[in-house]
Amino acid sequence: MFIGPMGRRAFMLGASAFILAGCVSTGQTVPTMTPVAEIEPEPVVPLMYAALPNEQFPIPEVDVSKVDQKWWRTEVDYPTGEKVGTVVVDTPNRYLYHVRSNGRATRYGVGVGRDGFAWAGQGHIAYKREWPRWRPPNEMVARQPELEPYSIDNGGMPPGLNNPLGSRALYIHEGNRDTIYRIHGTPEFSTIGKSVSSGCIRMLNQDVIHLADNVRDGSAIVVIPDPSMSHLLVG
After folding, report:
1. What is the CATH number of the domain that holds 100?
2. Of 7, 75, 187, 208, which cross-links 168 as Cys (Cβ 3.0–4.6 Å)?
3. Does 184 qualify as catalytic in the annotation?
4. Name one GO molecular function term (predicted).
5. How many domains does the chain have?
C-alpha cells in the first residue's frame, strides 16, 4: 500500500505517541533496584592445605582465612652458609627454613615461644614421632596445675587432634641433652606467625607433616634468637 508524504508524517507522529505512551507512568509504583552488596569470595584452599582423611586422626583442611598468605608454605631463594638439610628457625620473623640445594629453601610460617619461654641455639633433630603423646615437663605442670593429669608421671595426653603436639613432633637435642623444645603441629591456625606457645615451634599440621617427611633424623637445627625477648633461653 502506498503512503504519501502526509500519510508517512501522520504515521510517524502516531508511532512516536505510542512509544512515549509506553514511558508514561501508569500510576503503579515501579520497584527500585537495591544495590547488592559485594560478597567477599571464599579464599581458595590450595591443595597443600586440603584435608588429610587418611591420617590416623583425619585432619581437616586449613582455614586459610585465618592464616595470612605470607605464612603459607613456599619455595624461596635462601642463600646461606648452612649445609643442605639444616633447619633454620628465624624466630624474629616467624619463619622456618629447610635448606635445599642451589641456594633454595622450603619456607614455612611458624608460631614461636612467647617472651620468657622461648629457646634459641644450635642443636639437631634427634628423632621424629607421628601423633605423639604430650608430656608437659614438670616445670610447666608447676605453673599450670590443671595439667597434672597429663604429667610425665601420669603418662601424658594420648594423641589426637586436640593434643598440643598435633600430627608430628620433631625433638630438638643439644648433644645428648633433650632441650624439651619441639617442632610440632597445631590445629590452631590463627597462632601461626605469632608468639604464643610455651617455647615450642608450632606449624600447621599439613606443614609439619611435610617437614617431617623431608627432614632426616640427626639434621642440624639453628634457632635464631629474637632480640626483643628479654628472657630468651639460649643453648
Report:
1. 2.40.440.10
2. 208
3. yes
4. peptidoglycan L,D-transpeptidase activity
5. 1
Q: Tens of pLDDT along the chain (235 residues)?
A: 444 544 544 444 444 443 333 333 344 555 556 556 566 667 789 999 999 999 999 999 999 999 999 999 999 999 999 999 999 999 999 999 999 999 999 999 999 987 656 778 999 999 999 999 998 878 888 888 888 888 888 889 999 999 999 999 999 999 999 998 999 999 899 999 998 877 689 999 999 999 999 999 999 999 999 887 654 444 4
Question: Would you call 23 a catalytic residue per the annotation?
Answer: no
- Which residue segment(s) compose the domain that 111 sits in? 71-131+166-234
Cα distance between residue 14 and residue 198, in whole Å: 86
Residue 59 placed within a domain: no
User: Helix or strand or coil: residue 114?
Assistant: coil
Q: Which of 124, 200, 210, 231 is catalytic?
A: 200
pTM for this one?
Answer: 0.78
User: Residues 54, 55, 59, 62: is their CA dihedral positive or negative?
Assistant: negative
The three-class DSSP label of residue 10 is helix
